[in-house]
Design goal:
Radius of gyration: 29 Å
Number of strands: 0
Oligomer: single chain
Largest sheet: none
Helix content: over 70%
Structural class: mainly alpha
Order of helices and strands: HHHHHHHHHH
Length: 302
Amino acid sequence: MRVQSFYDWLLREVATCKMALVGLYEQKDKLLYMEAPPIRRRYMEAIGNFEESVLEAELEVSLLRRKIELIQISINRREPIDMQAIEAALEAEKSRKVSELEAGDATLNELPQLSEQEEHTLQRLYREITSAFHPAMNPDITETQKELYEKAQQAYRLQDVEAMKLIYDMLFAPAELSGLELATQDSYPSAQKLKAEFKKFVSALSTDYKLAKTLYSCFMPLEEDAVVLDSLETYNAQRKAVEDEIVSIKSGFPFNAVETLNDKSKTEEYLAELRLRAKQCETEKAQIEQRINELIEGVTNG
């Protein structure tokens, strides 16, 4: 029992963790590339377009405040006011702030709309490719397979069903030793066959190893356990990392806007707040621009 039961239990744990990780990767990608875009479009139509204009106005006012500071620094130092240098510094600061905002939004993607059948096909093919060729879970894949997997990720992000079909065929088609040679369509393994083989594999590991799991810590691990334990630790660490990513995505935009979108009163309340902020920006912008003109005229007349 010591060798067989414990080792089989470890293999079962690894298989379970691996499939859980595949599911998490799929869940993360679905959030980013399937669920987020329609929520984003709905938000932009109801709130976002106006909100963007307000945020742009607020950024402009913020840069004008900074412009006064830079002008005042030159005046205090009794130096010539180099407006060209000041404008360049402000433009760089604007680019930095815009980049920071965009980098903080993991779901910033505009994707095409798929039919229900196309979405189902894309999900199925990507799930099977991820299970068999994800580099983190299949370290022995070839460089060609790794490159094709990366192309599958790109096709998934772009929701390119036809590209995904082609990549699937290339990955699962048998190849000659002399190079990649696609077989005929009839020789491709069907999804049903792949699922049957996986089911058979899982079934072989489905023995109840609860007793082995309970007793394992009481025994000295054997040498052959080390590799399996390392894999188990790696998969668990990856699962935790992806789970954290999923939590972060769900707590960020556009998912954090769903409650507001679903409540008409909250939507109207926020729009009213935006209108007030826009008015405040308009007033402050006029005041700051007047102050800047006064400072420059003071230096010129002085």
